[in-house]
Specification:
Bound molecules: guanosine-5'-monophosphate, zinc ion
Largest sheet: 5 strands, antiparallel
Mean pLDDT: 97
Structural class: alpha+beta
Number of helices: 3
Low-confidence stretches: none
Shape: globular
Number of strands: 5
Order of helices and strands: HEEEHEEH
Distance between the termini: 34 Å
Helix content: 25-40%
Length: 136
């Protein structure tokens, strides 16, 4: 299942060349061309799914397994001090390419990048109320 207009379908399936770290029948893992830090790579399925919620469970599990294995390889090879595994769903969450991908972003002490949010305050009672709203 590919989308003819999708850049990641083309990269993952080899129609557009990429700096590939790893490839199997299901995934291609390649270097991000707008890297947050040295070694920023993307785990991308060869089939088109817009986001995590469309991804088959088995593929989602395999993506995390790959992040564990290749993330450690990147960390060790580049002597990173830490690693963010990041995954955005929807434009409001910062997704710019509508084909599921998992970011592996090695972090270095004082690399100057910020991946995070501003914590807000909530009472324990309000947290319980929101949990109940979600559970329905
Ligand atoms: P998102 O914002 O959707 O979570 O992440 C999209 C990522 O894809 C960005 O980090 C961006 O730099 C990367 N990207 C966008 N277009 C290309 C491309 O053509 N090739 C590669 N290798 N990375 C891309
Ligand atoms: Zn696609």
């Amino acid at each position: 299942m590919k989308d003819a207009n999708c850049i990641f379908c083309k990269i993952a399936n080899g129609e557009i060349p990429s700096a590939t770290l790893y490839e199997d029948d299901v995934f291609r893992v390649f270097m991000d061309l707008g890297p947050a830090t040295k070694g920023h790579a993307l785990i991308v399925p060869k089939d088109h799914y817009n986001d995590l919620f469309e991804l088959p469970e088995e593929t989602a599990a395999s993506a995390i397994k790959l992040a564990k294995k290749l993330g450690a390889q990147i960390r060790d090879a580049l002597h990173a001090d830490g690693m963010n595994i990041v995954q955005n769903n929807g434009a409001a969450a910062g997704q710019t390419v509508a084909h599921f991908h998992l970011h592996m972003i090695p972090r270095y002490a004082d690399d100057g990048q910020k991946i995070g949010w501003q914590p807000r305050e909530i009472t324990p009672e309000k947290a319980v109320e929101i949990a109940a709203e979600i559970k329905g």
